[in-house]
Amino acid sequence: MEFLKVDRVNQCALLCALLVGTLYLLVNWTPSGVLSQIQEQQLPRSKSRDILAGGYTDELGKVLADASAGNNKTVIITVVNKAYIEGDKSMLDLFLDGFWLGEGTRPLIRHLLIVAMDGTSFERCKFLGLHCYRLKTEVDLDGEKVYMTPGFLTMMWSRTQFLGNVLKRGYSFIFTDTDVMWLRDPFPRLNQNRSLDLQISVDGFNGDPWSEDNYMNTGFYMVRSNNRSIALFDEWYARRNASSGMKEQDVLTQIKQEGMFRTLGFSVRYWDTNYFSGFCNESKDVRAVITVHANCCRTIAAKAADLSTVLRDWKSFIGSPSSSSTNGTAAFQWSAHVACQHSWL
Ligand SMILES: *[C@@H]1O[C@H](CO)[C@@H](O)[C@H](O)[C@H]1NC(C)=O
Ligand SMILES: *[C@@H]1O[C@H](CO)[C@@H](O)[C@H](O)[C@H]1NC(C)=O
Ligand SMILES: *[C@@H]1O[C@H](CO)[C@@H](O)[C@H](O)[C@H]1NC(C)=O
Ligand SMILES: *[C@@H]1O[C@H](CO)[C@@H](O)[C@H](O)[C@H]1NC(C)=O
Ligand SMILES: *[C@@H]1O[C@H](CO)[C@@H](O)[C@H](O)[C@H]1NC(C)=O
Ligand SMILES: *[C@@H]1O[C@H](CO)[C@@H](O)[C@H](O)[C@H]1NC(C)=O
């Protein structure tokens, strides 16, 4: 009865207080409100937002988790810039064609992480619907990086530093240059011996997979994440400033020659070019070949021309009846790498 006696002004004040109170509770005491308050106290603003979005601390963590899903914390990494996406048939197009035409390589595209050195190649990667990561570097890296120019060296070193960070996050990876055609799935062969820290392609194979005298090529290798590989990549990158114009591959060779692989207990297998082949020394056995690298070649245009020919040769091999008869190998021959031979002149 007391209630009925209060005037209209007091009634409104009471209702408003109730309403405001309810709204206050809704906004501030729902579970998500509590969560964001706690997390923003503990972390810088941008980081807390990433955690709320997907449970990862940053963008690299997210793309690595996505690309390695179902592949035992192992990813396939290639690095591109604008020069690799230009032209009627770009280097990236050819690279992807390899996965399309290769034997058992199509599903591997899900584990491929494309690291883009500039905004244009990053946009192209996203347009293709692949896993993409934009790597920021100290200088602009969007043009063609001709072999051994300062831009080429900066790009090489940035990737060494980046790959060391991937290992530190607990991910193993196959690094592949974009001018490597994947004609077969390499994992069955690379997973044969899980105690190996590094398995790497070579320019010329001397016949002994354990011999340090093999001339390794950093355009294709698999490295497992562990203390030894992390220490090795730290040492590799630490030599950047003291390397006076040497490319990172030569610095790794120097580290090997100084005996550091043995000191670290870092086990390395050098792969026969019969399986991991290249233009320097091409595989004689098209039935065994897994990858073909446009090494011993200077420009992107020359590589693209000769890799188109590799894919054409491969298509005629898989389309020919001889690919399933014991006679196929003898009949098959790779075409000459004419453009690459001329790229040095
Ligand atoms: C995943 O990797 C670990 C460590 O290298 C290995 O022991 C395990 O057998 C692998 N599992 C699969 C399914 O390949
Ligand atoms: C596996 O790799 C280790 C080096 O880590 C080597 O000692 C061993 O012989 C290899 N096993 C096979 C079967 O090749
Ligand atoms: C492999 O290639 C290198 C560089 O072109 C050459 O010097 C070497 O003779 C080749 N080796 C074989 C076995 O073909
Ligand atoms: C790497 O080293 C750290 C400390 O030095 C150790 O705690 C860890 O177990 C090591 N991990 C492996 C995989 O050897
Ligand atoms: C190289 O030198 C620059 C400047 O002198 C320095 O900022 C950078 O940390 C050095 N890098 C390495 C890997 O030592
Ligand atoms: C293999 O090729 C040779 C010569 O090209 C031919 O004479 C022979 O019949 C072939 N053998 C088979 C099994 O196809």
Observed structural traits:
binds 2-acetamido-2-deoxy-beta-D-glucopyranose; 7-stranded mixed sheet; Spore Coat Polysaccharide Biosynthesis Protein SpsA, Chain A; 345 residues; alpha/beta; 46% helix; 3-stranded mixed sheet
Annotate the secondary structure layout.
Elements: H1 2-5, H2 8-29, H3 31-42, H4 45-54, H5 59-68, E1 74-80, H6 91-101, E2 112-116, H7 119-127, E3 131-134, H8 150-168, E4 172-176, E5 180-182, H9 187-190, E6 198-202, E7 216-223, H10 227-238, H11 248-257, H12 260-264, E8 268-271, E9 276-278, E10 291-293, H13 300-319, H14 328-331, H15 338-342
Parallel strand pairs: 1-2, 1-4, 2-3, 6-8, 9-10
Antiparallel strand pairs: 4-7, 5-10, 6-7
Short description:
The chain is α/β, with parallel strands linked by helices and 345 residues long. It has one domain: Spore Coat Polysaccharide Biosynthesis Protein SpsA, Chain A.
Would you mind describing this structure in some detail?
- With 345 residues, the chain is α/β, with parallel strands linked by helices.
- It has a single domain (72-342), classed as Spore Coat Polysaccharide Biosynthesis Protein SpsA, Chain A (Alpha-Beta Complex).
- Helices cover 46% and strands 14% of the residues.
- It is built from 15 helices and ten strands.
- The protein has helices spanning 2-5, 8-29, 31-42, 45-54, 59-68, 91-101, 119-127, 150-168, 187-190, 227-238, 248-257, 260-264, 300-319, 328-331, 338-342, and strands at residues 74-80, 112-116, 131-134, 172-176, 180-182, 198-202, 216-223, 268-271, 276-278, 291-293.
- Strands 3-2-1-4-7-6-8 form a seven-stranded mixed beta sheet.
- Strand 1 (74-80), helix 6 and strand 2 (112-116) form a beta-alpha-beta unit.
- The longest helix has 22 residues, at 8-29.
- The radius of gyration is 27 Å and the shape is globular.
- Residues 1-6 and 18-52 have low confidence and may be disordered.
- Bound molecules: 2-acetamido-2-deoxy-beta-D-glucopyranose (6 copies).
- One 2-acetamido-2-deoxy-beta-D-glucopyranose binds at residues 237-238, 240-241.
